[in-house]
Amino acid sequence: MKRALVKFRNSGFRKFLTRHQKYAPIIFFIAGFIFDSLTLGRIDRLYDVIMLCLYMTLLTTVLYLYNVVDDGKWKNTKLGEYEEYLPLAIQFFFGGLSSAYVIYFSRSVSLSKTMSFFIILIVLFFANEYLKKRISNKYLQFSVYFFISFTFFVFMIPVFIKEMNTGIFIVSGAVSLVCTLILIVFIYIISPSTRLEVHLGKIIGLILSIYGVINLFYFLNLIPPVPLAMETGLVAHNIGIRNNKYVVSYETDEWYVFWRDYRHKFILQPDGTVYVFSSIFAPTDLEKSILHRWKWFDRNTGSWEIMDNIGYEITGGRDGGYRGYTFKNNVKPGRWQIEVITEEGLVLGIIDFEIIMNPDLQPKGMVQREF
After folding, report:
1. What is the largest CA-CA distance in the chain?
2. Fewer CB within 10 Å: C terminus or N terminus of the chain?
3. Is 251 left (phi over 0), alpha (psi -120 to 50) or beta?
4. Distance separating alpha carbons of residues 90 and 323, to the nearest angstrom
5. Residue 21: pLDDT above 80?
C-alpha cells in the first residue's frame, strides 16, 4: 500500500492534476458522466445496484472524512497527505449519482408534468463546478447530500422489496432523513471545527425543509414515479399481435421533430378508432396497475375534460418494457392528452396529439413497427 501511495505521488497523473487543477473537477465530472452513460442500464440490474450502493457508501465515507479533516485527526497520516483530493472525491460521487439519476429519469418519454424535478437534477448535474468552489460551505454540502440520498433510497427500496406506492415513497424518504440526520449529528458531536461553522438547529431545519418540499412535489405529482419509466408512447391507427410482438401502425412526423416518434396531427376517418400504445419499464417482479387517462380539450370552457380511464396490469423484468394499449372510437376532433399514470395518479408520461377528422385526408408517413 505504501509503495502504491509513493508511486501515485510521483505519477504523471498527479502532476497532470496539479498542473491543470482548475480543470480537474470538470474532467472528473465529465469522466463520471461518460462512465455512467456507457455502463448503467437497468436500475434493477445487479451491476447498477452495486455501483449506486458503492457510490452512496463512498460518498458518505468521504463526506465524513472531509468534515473532520480540519480537526487534525488525519495529521501525520497517509490519509492526511491526500486531504486535498477529498473535495474532488465528493464532487465525483455527487456527479456520479446525479448523472445516474438523470439517465434513469430521462428514460421517460414525456416529462411535461414532472419537468420541475428533472430540472433540479439537471441543475445539480451541471452545478458541480460551482459546488466545488463552495464545498467548504457545510450547509450547502449537507443539503445536496440529503437530496442525493433521498433520491437514492426512493430508487433502491422499491427495487429491493418489489413494490412501490405512496407508503413506500414516504418510508424511503424517512429512511434517507434519519440516515442524513444521524450523519450530521455524529459529525457535529466529534468535530469541533464543524461545531464552530454550523448551527445544529439551522442545518436540521434546512434538511427538514428540503424533506417537506420533496414530499410536496410528490403529492402534487411533480416527481416521476421512480423506478417506473415510460419508454415508448404512441398514438396509432391500428395495433395487432404477431409472434408475441405488438405490431403498431402509426403516422410519423417530419425528420426534424426528434423528440416525438409519432405525428402530432392525427388524421382520422369519421368512423375510425384511435389506439394508444405504451411500454413501461419496471424492475423485475414489480407488479403495478397502469391507467391511460383519456382527456379532451373543450374549447368552450378552456379546460381539459376526462373522457375515460382505462387500465391494465404490468409486471416488471422485460428489457423493452411491459407493453399495453387502449383504444377508443366515436372520438371528438380536437386536442387530446393521454396521461399514462399509476393507480395513485402519478404521471409516467403524456401522449398528446390533435385529431383531425376529414374523410378527404389520408394518414401521412405511415409506418409499421414491432415492439
Report:
1. 84
2. N
3. beta
4. 40
5. no
